[in-house]
Amino acid sequence: MGRSNPGNSRLVSVHVNWLAKELGESLVLPLQAAPLPANFVHLLESHIFAQLSNPLLPPLVRLHWCQLWCFILLVGISGHHPGNLTCICTPSITWLPDRKCIIITLITGKTATVSKPDRFVVDHPPLLTALRLYARDCAWNGIDLAEGTPYIFFKLTEHKLPEKHIPGSAQNLNAAFQQTLKSMGIFEGKTLYSFCVGNPITTAMNTPDPAALSAAGGWRSDASVLRYSQVAIVAAAAEAYAEAPTDAVR
Predict the structure, then answer these.
(1) Whether 148 contacts 164, CB under 8 Å
(2) pTM above 0.85, yes or no
(3) Is residue 143 part of a domain?
(4) What's the structural domain count of the chain?
(5) CA 101/CA 94 separation, integer angstroms
(6) Which of 5, 68, 81, 246 is 20–30 Å from 118 (CA)?
(7) How far apart are alpha carbons 222 and 225 in whole angstroms?
(8) Which domain holds residue 36?
(9) What are the φ/ψ torsions at residue 103 (nearest 5 degrees)?
Protein backbone atom coordinates (compact mmCIF):
# COMPACT_ATOMS: atom_id res chain seq x y z
CA MET A 1 0.00 0.00 0.00
CA GLY A 2 2.88 2.32 0.78
CA ARG A 3 4.12 2.03 -2.80
CA SER A 4 0.83 2.99 -4.42
CA ASN A 5 0.28 6.45 -5.84
CA PRO A 6 -2.80 8.05 -4.19
CA GLY A 7 -3.05 10.36 -7.19
CA ASN A 8 -4.05 7.37 -9.31
CA SER A 9 -7.00 6.42 -7.11
CA ARG A 10 -10.48 6.39 -8.63
CA LEU A 11 -11.83 8.91 -6.07
CA VAL A 12 -9.09 11.41 -6.89
CA SER A 13 -9.66 10.91 -10.61
CA VAL A 14 -13.42 11.47 -10.26
CA HIS A 15 -12.85 14.58 -8.13
CA VAL A 16 -10.35 16.08 -10.61
CA ASN A 17 -12.68 15.38 -13.54
CA TRP A 18 -15.58 16.99 -11.66
CA LEU A 19 -13.49 20.09 -10.93
CA ALA A 20 -12.43 20.32 -14.59
CA LYS A 21 -16.06 20.06 -15.72
CA GLU A 22 -17.20 22.72 -13.23
CA LEU A 23 -14.37 25.00 -14.30
CA GLY A 24 -15.29 24.63 -17.94
CA GLU A 25 -19.01 25.15 -17.42
CA SER A 26 -18.55 28.24 -15.25
CA LEU A 27 -15.98 29.68 -17.70
CA VAL A 28 -13.82 30.75 -14.76
CA LEU A 29 -10.06 30.82 -15.05
CA PRO A 30 -7.68 30.81 -12.06
CA LEU A 31 -7.59 34.61 -12.32
CA GLN A 32 -10.80 36.56 -11.88
CA ALA A 33 -12.55 37.15 -15.21
CA ALA A 34 -12.29 40.66 -16.61
CA PRO A 35 -15.62 42.46 -16.06
CA LEU A 36 -18.19 43.35 -18.70
CA PRO A 37 -21.17 45.65 -18.01
CA ALA A 38 -24.63 44.48 -19.08
CA ASN A 39 -24.91 47.29 -21.64
CA PHE A 40 -22.00 45.75 -23.57
CA VAL A 41 -24.59 43.66 -25.42
CA HIS A 42 -25.61 46.80 -27.33
CA LEU A 43 -22.34 46.54 -29.24
CA LEU A 44 -23.37 43.10 -30.48
CA GLU A 45 -26.96 43.91 -31.34
CA SER A 46 -26.47 45.41 -34.81
CA HIS A 47 -24.00 42.67 -35.80
CA ILE A 48 -26.29 39.81 -34.76
CA PHE A 49 -29.38 41.47 -36.24
CA ALA A 50 -27.50 41.82 -39.52
CA GLN A 51 -27.01 38.05 -39.51
CA LEU A 52 -30.68 37.38 -38.69
CA SER A 53 -31.93 39.74 -41.41
CA ASN A 54 -30.02 37.89 -44.14
CA PRO A 55 -32.75 36.22 -46.27
CA LEU A 56 -30.22 33.69 -47.61
CA LEU A 57 -29.28 32.40 -44.16
CA PRO A 58 -30.15 28.69 -43.80
CA PRO A 59 -32.86 28.11 -41.13
CA LEU A 60 -30.57 26.05 -38.89
CA VAL A 61 -27.81 28.67 -38.98
CA ARG A 62 -30.39 31.33 -38.16
CA LEU A 63 -31.49 29.20 -35.20
CA HIS A 64 -27.89 29.18 -33.94
CA TRP A 65 -27.83 32.99 -34.01
CA CYS A 66 -31.22 33.24 -32.29
CA GLN A 67 -30.17 30.92 -29.50
CA LEU A 68 -26.83 32.68 -29.01
CA TRP A 69 -28.50 36.11 -28.87
CA CYS A 70 -31.04 34.94 -26.26
CA PHE A 71 -28.30 33.36 -24.16
CA ILE A 72 -26.04 36.43 -24.28
CA LEU A 73 -28.93 38.68 -23.24
CA LEU A 74 -29.93 36.35 -20.39
CA VAL A 75 -26.39 36.06 -19.03
CA GLY A 76 -25.90 39.79 -19.42
CA ILE A 77 -28.95 40.90 -17.46
CA SER A 78 -29.33 38.06 -14.93
CA GLY A 79 -25.83 37.79 -13.49
CA HIS A 80 -26.16 33.99 -13.27
CA HIS A 81 -23.41 31.60 -14.26
CA PRO A 82 -23.58 30.53 -17.91
CA GLY A 83 -23.21 26.87 -16.93
CA ASN A 84 -26.33 27.09 -14.76
CA LEU A 85 -28.39 28.86 -17.42
CA THR A 86 -27.80 26.16 -20.03
CA CYS A 87 -29.76 23.81 -17.76
CA ILE A 88 -32.97 25.89 -17.72
CA CYS A 89 -35.81 23.47 -18.32
CA THR A 90 -38.66 24.43 -20.62
CA PRO A 91 -41.34 24.14 -17.87
CA SER A 92 -39.17 26.37 -15.65
CA ILE A 93 -40.01 29.51 -17.63
CA THR A 94 -43.39 31.02 -16.75
CA TRP A 95 -44.86 33.93 -18.67
CA LEU A 96 -47.02 36.22 -16.57
CA PRO A 97 -50.51 37.05 -17.92
CA ASP A 98 -49.51 40.47 -19.27
CA ARG A 99 -46.69 38.84 -21.30
CA LYS A 100 -44.33 41.59 -20.13
CA CYS A 101 -42.44 39.50 -17.64
CA ILE A 102 -41.23 35.94 -17.07
CA ILE A 103 -40.23 33.98 -13.99
CA ILE A 104 -37.30 31.60 -14.41
CA THR A 105 -36.77 28.79 -11.93
CA LEU A 106 -33.38 27.09 -11.77
CA ILE A 107 -33.43 23.64 -10.17
CA THR A 108 -29.96 22.45 -11.20
CA GLY A 109 -26.54 24.05 -11.11
CA LYS A 110 -24.10 25.39 -8.57
CA THR A 111 -26.61 27.54 -6.69
CA ALA A 112 -29.89 25.65 -7.12
CA THR A 113 -31.46 22.27 -6.35
CA VAL A 114 -34.96 20.82 -6.62
CA SER A 115 -35.46 21.38 -2.87
CA LYS A 116 -33.93 24.89 -2.99
CA PRO A 117 -34.75 26.37 -6.40
CA ASP A 118 -33.34 29.69 -7.54
CA ARG A 119 -36.10 31.92 -8.95
CA PHE A 120 -35.61 35.27 -10.61
CA VAL A 121 -37.76 37.64 -12.62
CA VAL A 122 -36.89 38.92 -16.09
CA ASP A 123 -38.69 41.99 -17.48
CA HIS A 124 -36.04 43.07 -19.99
CA PRO A 125 -38.00 43.85 -23.22
CA PRO A 126 -35.16 42.96 -25.68
CA LEU A 127 -34.77 39.53 -24.07
CA LEU A 128 -38.51 38.86 -24.08
CA THR A 129 -38.65 39.81 -27.77
CA ALA A 130 -35.62 37.62 -28.50
CA LEU A 131 -37.27 34.66 -26.74
CA ARG A 132 -40.39 35.04 -28.90
CA LEU A 133 -38.29 35.10 -32.07
CA TYR A 134 -36.27 32.12 -30.84
CA ALA A 135 -39.45 30.12 -30.22
CA ARG A 136 -40.64 31.00 -33.73
CA ASP A 137 -37.36 29.88 -35.30
CA CYS A 138 -37.46 26.67 -33.28
CA ALA A 139 -40.92 26.00 -34.74
CA TRP A 140 -39.60 26.67 -38.26
CA ASN A 141 -37.04 23.92 -37.60
CA GLY A 142 -39.66 21.48 -36.33
CA ILE A 143 -38.95 22.04 -32.62
CA ASP A 144 -41.77 23.00 -30.25
CA LEU A 145 -40.32 24.68 -27.15
CA ALA A 146 -43.61 24.19 -25.32
CA GLU A 147 -43.93 20.45 -26.00
CA GLY A 148 -41.33 17.69 -25.99
CA THR A 149 -38.25 19.91 -25.63
CA PRO A 150 -36.83 19.58 -22.10
CA TYR A 151 -34.28 22.40 -22.36
CA ILE A 152 -34.65 25.96 -23.60
CA PHE A 153 -31.01 26.13 -24.69
CA PHE A 154 -30.73 22.66 -26.20
CA LYS A 155 -27.61 21.39 -27.91
CA LEU A 156 -26.87 22.87 -31.32
CA THR A 157 -23.84 21.70 -33.26
CA GLU A 158 -22.71 23.03 -36.61
CA HIS A 159 -23.71 20.83 -39.56
CA LYS A 160 -25.75 18.53 -37.31
CA LEU A 161 -29.41 18.26 -36.40
CA PRO A 162 -30.44 19.84 -33.07
CA GLU A 163 -30.34 17.51 -30.06
CA LYS A 164 -33.31 18.87 -28.15
CA HIS A 165 -33.07 16.37 -25.28
CA ILE A 166 -29.53 17.48 -24.34
CA PRO A 167 -28.70 20.86 -22.76
CA GLY A 168 -26.31 23.13 -24.62
CA SER A 169 -22.71 23.58 -23.54
CA ALA A 170 -21.62 26.79 -21.86
CA GLN A 171 -18.18 26.25 -23.39
CA ASN A 172 -19.61 26.07 -26.92
CA LEU A 173 -21.84 29.10 -26.39
CA ASN A 174 -18.90 31.02 -24.97
CA ALA A 175 -16.77 30.03 -27.98
CA ALA A 176 -19.50 31.39 -30.28
CA PHE A 177 -19.66 34.58 -28.19
CA GLN A 178 -15.90 35.08 -28.43
CA GLN A 179 -15.86 34.29 -32.15
CA THR A 180 -18.49 36.99 -32.64
CA LEU A 181 -16.31 39.50 -30.80
CA LYS A 182 -13.32 38.48 -32.91
CA SER A 183 -15.24 38.92 -36.16
CA MET A 184 -16.21 42.42 -34.97
CA GLY A 185 -12.61 43.21 -34.02
CA ILE A 186 -13.40 43.90 -30.36
CA PHE A 187 -12.21 40.69 -28.67
CA GLU A 188 -10.01 41.36 -25.62
CA GLY A 189 -10.16 38.03 -23.82
CA LYS A 190 -13.61 38.49 -22.31
CA THR A 191 -15.92 35.52 -21.65
CA LEU A 192 -19.63 35.23 -20.92
CA TYR A 193 -18.70 34.94 -17.25
CA SER A 194 -17.37 38.50 -17.47
CA PHE A 195 -21.00 39.69 -17.20
CA CYS A 196 -21.26 37.95 -13.80
CA VAL A 197 -18.30 40.05 -12.65
CA GLY A 198 -19.33 43.30 -14.32
CA ASN A 199 -22.95 43.38 -13.13
CA PRO A 200 -22.21 43.57 -9.38
CA ILE A 201 -19.47 46.16 -9.98
CA THR A 202 -21.95 48.40 -11.78
CA THR A 203 -24.57 47.79 -9.09
CA ALA A 204 -22.13 48.44 -6.24
CA MET A 205 -21.40 51.88 -7.68
CA ASN A 206 -25.06 52.78 -7.14
CA THR A 207 -26.00 50.93 -3.95
CA PRO A 208 -24.39 48.86 -1.15
CA ASP A 209 -27.64 46.91 -0.68
CA PRO A 210 -26.70 43.19 -0.35
CA ALA A 211 -30.00 42.12 -1.95
CA ALA A 212 -29.29 44.21 -5.05
CA LEU A 213 -25.71 42.91 -5.26
CA SER A 214 -26.95 39.34 -4.79
CA ALA A 215 -29.40 39.71 -7.68
CA ALA A 216 -26.77 41.32 -9.92
CA GLY A 217 -24.22 38.59 -9.31
CA GLY A 218 -26.58 35.63 -9.10
CA TRP A 219 -25.49 34.79 -5.53
CA ARG A 220 -27.57 33.02 -2.90
CA SER A 221 -25.88 34.03 0.38
CA ASP A 222 -24.69 37.25 2.02
CA ALA A 223 -21.24 35.67 2.48
CA SER A 224 -20.90 35.16 -1.27
CA VAL A 225 -22.07 38.72 -1.92
CA LEU A 226 -19.46 40.14 0.44
CA ARG A 227 -16.65 37.93 -0.81
CA TYR A 228 -17.13 37.98 -4.57
CA SER A 229 -18.42 41.53 -5.02
CA GLN A 230 -15.43 42.90 -3.10
CA VAL A 231 -13.03 40.71 -5.08
CA ALA A 232 -14.59 41.90 -8.33
CA ILE A 233 -14.42 45.57 -7.33
CA VAL A 234 -10.82 45.32 -6.15
CA ALA A 235 -9.83 43.42 -9.32
CA ALA A 236 -11.46 46.06 -11.52
CA ALA A 237 -9.76 48.87 -9.59
CA ALA A 238 -6.39 47.12 -9.89
CA GLU A 239 -6.85 46.69 -13.64
CA ALA A 240 -7.78 50.36 -14.05
CA TYR A 241 -4.74 51.40 -11.99
CA ALA A 242 -2.43 49.20 -14.06
CA GLU A 243 -3.71 50.76 -17.29
CA ALA A 244 -3.43 54.34 -16.01
CA PRO A 245 -0.52 56.40 -17.42
CA THR A 246 2.48 56.67 -15.09
CA ASP A 247 3.15 60.06 -13.57
CA ALA A 248 6.57 61.02 -15.00
CA VAL A 249 7.21 63.57 -12.22
CA ARG A 250 7.22 60.88 -9.58
Answers:
(1) yes
(2) no
(3) yes
(4) 1
(5) 9
(6) 68
(7) 5
(8) 32-240
(9) -110, 125
